TrEMBL record:
Cell compartment(s), UniProt: Nucleus
The ARM repeat ranges on this chain: 377-417
Cell cycle as UniProt keyword: no
Protein name as it appears in the record: SWI/SNF-like complex subunit BAF250 C-terminal domain-containing protein
InterPro entries named among the record's database cross-references: ARM-like, ARM-type_fold, Armadillo, BAF250/Osa, BAF250_C
Residues annotated as domain SWI/SNF-like complex subunit BAF250 C-terminal: 212-248
Domain of life: Eukaryota
Region (Disordered): 1-44
SUPFAM superfamilies (UniProt xref): ARM repeat (SSF48371)
Annotated organism of origin: Xanthoceras sorbifolium
Main location: nucleus
Keywords: Nucleus, Repeat
Length: 461
């Protein structure tokens, strides 16, 4: 348990010589050479080339907090746009911005609920039709050709154009007129099965609602980076239910909205207790602990690098809290398999996120260590991270410490003995991890296993 208390909130942490990364972003998210060149260029560039900046005075929030909340709650396009733009400016901070005039949510009562309502409104509109009530046959006006709603006047116009040419003077029969009437009803019969009401938004209105929801999610994400807001947001059940539902529907939901929701959870993970979903706090969306973990697993299996890296980091942060273990342990075999796959990825940030999560999981209990050691390719890929090596020394150090945790279990020693030569090679070739691999070899060769110890105790060997 000592390793789990040593500042695990960094997720897939980076080296001590590397500047602290922005929370919610895995280490190594930029390539080593390009990142170094970019940082060097930024430091060498004069400040006059950075362009204009827009700053909002810190007293603006105190003077307009009620107006901001009421503007969001009004739902009016102009008021909502003004409020979202204002909050975006107030919540945004550059990575190296040292301003102290952060905007704590406690200063603006009702703001978080108002922003969540914007997202909920969009999700109500974006709900696929197959998840709504089944279409029903309408009986009102069933004997008329058209109802007067929608675009049915086109069917009426086509009928009027055809009837004079085939009127009574031309000798057309009543059967032909009836057939034309029935064909017109067939062309417009789709309206009877359409559940779209009179006041539903058109495509432009839906797009504007979507943009507002994305802007609201970006503001919530920005607020989650501020330490003053972490406790409030991590204990706000409606906030957690909304963001977890967004990542649960990542296949159909807007990608930027899902990314903002995922980064929000990653930022709040060190303070997140999954038991909040079964607490007595009022619930708006029926999210359970199991559904929340399944949503994270869905993101972990995503092919998008930003999503599965953040999901791996999220799992590594959640498992630090012992109260979350009962909900995560049933998924440990699936988590191990996916994290081992990520270690074989060419993306350095994916390797870092996977190693960071496995480092925390290996410290949970003996069962996790046994399952990880028996996971195919797990030990090979941990060694590959160290041998390559990964450009972030902290990642290699954690990979070595995972191997040390695995060898501490007597049942794993027979598996690890097959890698004795590889351990010895790293011991003599890389002085940075020589102490760790010296302890690993000592555990493998010097200490008797459990079966030998029992035999000596019984037979006096």
């Amino acid at each position: 348990m000592q390793k789990r208390d040593q500042g695990k909130s960094g997720g897939a942490a980076g080296g001590a010589a590397t500047p602290a990364a922005k929370r919610g972003r895995p280490f190594g998210s930029t390539s080593g050479s390009s990142a170094g060149a970019g940082s060097a260029a930024d430091t060498a560039a004069p400040t006059t080339l950075l362009g204009p900046t827009l700053q909002v005075h810190s007293s603006f929030t105190d003077q307009n907090n009620k107006r901001i909340v009421l503007a969001i709650q009004s739902g009016l396009k102009s008021e909502l746009t003004w409020a979202l733009n204002t909050l975006t400016l107030l919540s945004f901070k550059e990575k190296d911005d040292m301003r102290k005039d952060a905007t704590p949510l406690a200063k603006i009562p009702g703001l978080l609920d108002a922003l969540l309502q914007v997202i909920d409104d969009w999700r109500d509109l974006a709900l696929p039709k197959e998840h709504q009530k089944k279409p029903r046959v309408r009986t009102l006006g069933v004997n008329s050709i058209v109802s007067g709603f929608g675009h049915e006047y086109k069917a009426l116009g086509s009928l009027n154009n055809t009837l004079p040419n085939s009127g009574v003077g031309s000798g057309s029969s009543a059967a032909e007129a009836l057939a034309q009437k029935n064909s017109a009803k067939v062309r417009s019969s789709g309206w009877w099965f359409d559940e779209d009401g009179l006041f539903n938004l058109d495509d432009e209105g839906r797009a504007e609602k979507q943009q507002c929801a994305v802007a609201a999610s970006n503001i919530i994400r920005n607020f989650s980076f501020m330490p003053d807001n972490e406790v409030i947001m991590a204990q706000h059940r409606h906030c957690l239910e909304t963001v977890f539902q967004c990542i649960e529907d990542h296949i159909t939901e807007d990608e930027e909205l899902v990314t903002n929701a995922l980064e929000t959870i990653v930022n709040l993970a060190p303070l997140l207790d999954l038991r909040i979903f079964s607490s007595s706090k009022p619930s708006y969306i029926k999210i359970t602990e199991k559904r929340a973990v399944q949503a994270i697993m869905g993101m972990l299996g995503s092919p998008y690098k930003a999503w599965h890296c953040a999901a791996a980091e999220l799992l590594g942060r959640l498992i630090i809290n012992p109260d979350n273990e009962p909900f995560l342990l049933p998924f440990v075999p699936q988590i191990h398999k996916r994290l081992v796959d990520l270690m074989s990825s060419l993306a350095l940030d994916a390797q870092a996120a996977a190693v960071g999560a496995l480092y925390n999981l290996a410290e949970v209990n003996m069962d996790c260590r046994l399952k990880l050691a028996n996971e195919r390719w797990a030990i090979d890929r941990l060694l590959k991270v160290i041998r390559t090596p990964h450009p972030v020394p902290e990642v290699c150090r954690k990979a070595a410490m995972i191997l040390e945790s695995l060898v501490s279990e007597p049942q794993n020693r027979s598996l690890l003995l097959a890698y004795e030569n590889a351990f010895a090679e790293i011991l003599f070739s890389d002085g940075r991890y020589s102490d760790t691999f010296a302890r690993i070899l000592y555990e493998l060769t010097s200490r008797p296993n459990s079966k030998m110890a029992a035999a000596r105790g019984v037979w006096g060997m």
